[in-house]
Amino acid sequence: MSYKLLALDVDGTLLNDDGVLTQKTIDTIKKVYNSGIQVVISTGRSLNQTRPILDELGIEGILVSHNGATTLRTDNKEIIHEFSYDIKEVADIVRYCRKHDIQFSVCTAFDFYVERLDNYQTDLYKRFNLVPIMHSDVLSLTDKVMKFTVDDQQRVDGWRDIKFSNLRKTSDSFFQDIIHPNAHKASALEQVLYKLNMDKSEIIAIGDFYNDLEMLEFAGLGIAMGNAPDDLKEKADVVTTSNNEDGVSHALEKYLF
Q1: Domain 87-179 has what CATH class?
Q2: What PANTHER family does the record tag this protein with (predicted)?
Q3: In whole angstroms, what is the distance from residue 147 CA to residue 130 CA?
């Protein structure tokens, strides 16, 4: 099969556990990119968070951000498609988090808002290259929301009973997100395929966590990282080595070259 598009998760996939791109991974991605294959980073991160990775890889193109809620061009910030909602739709969880002193954040297409910061969150945001904008009341935001995030996994059990009739919850290794019901990496890639006039059989996708599941099942070849949960590995077409063993590089050398 001749693959034309590579969809790549970031955390736990491209990056090792130290949050680093290894030289082997960089060299392989550049090799893919220079061969004419579209490289689409598909991540829960925003463009600003992903920019250092794009620069290190030396690539530009299409980015699937906010776990599929926003699809855009990285060079001119043109939004190709978005799955968004109004902040009022998460008013109950905002109030719950405030009442129980749980850290949360709100992402629009390009900005990242918080109402407070402590030392732990400051360090966590630095790790993910997040630059928060302090806002006294996020419920007054007028821009459409791409993602609402509960940043404290240890203390979110109580909010699971809160019903979201028009939204859905998703998670990665660090955060719990509330996004548009149609927002996931596969639905975003559908929009990319339409724009590029490609078929899903021409996609290779690589990921490591449950927010990658739809993408792995959608792609012509879905590859799970060796560090992925076992049930995710079972649903992938193949499994590569872990993110600490250059799993992305190993997979691409095997299936593309």
Answers
A1: alpha beta
A2: HAD SUPERFAMILY HYDROLASE-LIKE, TYPE 3, PHOSPHOSERINE PHOSPHATASE
A3: 14
